[in-house]
Amino acid sequence: MAEKADIDNSDQRASGRPDTDRAKRFLDLWEASLAKVIRGSSVPPANGTEVK
Amino acid sequence: MNAARTGQPGPLPFHLASAVLCYQQALSMAPLAHTDQFPWHPDITSRPDVPPDGLATLAEALTRLREMTQGLKRWQSNPFKAPRTDRQVLWSLGSTRLLDCGSHGNTGLPVLVVPSLINRSYILDLMHGLSLMDALAEEGFRPILMDWGDPDPMTKSFGLSDYCEQRLIPALAVVEAISGGRKPAIFGYCMGGTLATGMAARLPDRLSALVTLGAPWDFHADHPGLSGQIRKAARASGASQLSTQIKTIEATFGQVPAEVFQSLFAVIDPLQALQKFRRFADPDPSCDDPERFVAIEDWLADGVGMTGPAALDLLVGWHIENRPATGRWQCLGSAVQAEDISTPSLVVTCARDTIVPPVMSDPLAAAIPDARHICADVGHVGAIVGRSAPDHVWSPITKFLLETAA
To answer: Which residues 264-283 of B have a C-beta within 8 angstroms of A?
Structure first.
């Protein structure tokens, strides 16, 4: 029965792709948001260029 | 687990707990994701229109946590051992060694390379095919790498100035003896760059060039990230409290153990382990460089402790009291004034550095008269061993040294 339940749950998850995609996008945004808080939102001022 | 190594991203419990907490917070606030009540960072403008499904979010969070531990397992079970370079020891004293990284018969201008005291020096000479020392040697220089080693009975009471006086000064004399009458250059990485700056300020006639990379200078510079907030909190709690803590740690362990510094690095970027080990979980070699990753993680896990007095100088004298930028850092008998440095200087700062953000390192370029300043699009460790390091960091440094040596 447990195995059957697992299979059923898998099927339900597979049929809910929009939910999964929304969850992935939400967590991607959440991690990006946290990273900006942690590291500061400064944009690199230069890319290997001499600034002085 | 078939572990090829036992190292951990230290402290592992903190990294695992941070990852769990990250997703736990996301799950608890997910119903508000589409509202103004959700604490999105202002830079995140593309926000969800509807809240994510709770169960799907939980499943995805669990998948990501599993990927993190899979990445960790992939590192620990990886059989790769970095092919370390074999260098001649030019001089040693206690656990300190001076390593000749020039090719055999190299008579190029010696460059004394000064690493940080809180990490192993071999990041600068990580392995065959990934070595800043080899890059310097290929341009005709003779890089001489200072390997501080572990605190030992001779260095137990050393503060930072003692390391300059009793290790860097004798090392410089050894380097001068092989320089054929030319003045050697000095190149310092991380806090080694700050020490090299002290050497250049105090010994204006003995060095031909100064290069610093990711070297902290202004410790009170305002940084909006977590590291800036932690520095502010440390300053608010005062020097005496931190001094007492450091002295207690030293009394307990005989030194300030590597784990203390690994914990500090972890606290200022608590998501780093989650993100990098998730990326490393992907077994597709085309989107990764597993050997580079393994070599760097092995180095990160191979921490080194610091003497109590040196830790006091670093964490209290530099971080709390900001002695370098305020002209109050005593080195080789008097206060270091960067404004007095007349040696041709290059200051390389790292735009993506969370350990020494540009706000801390840029002021050194402003303080040294006529210093050249390059801000590279790299992180603190990536500046040495990242994919873009050869173009963005190694090449400008060798170019500057070639110009000053001409």
So the answer is: 268-271, 275
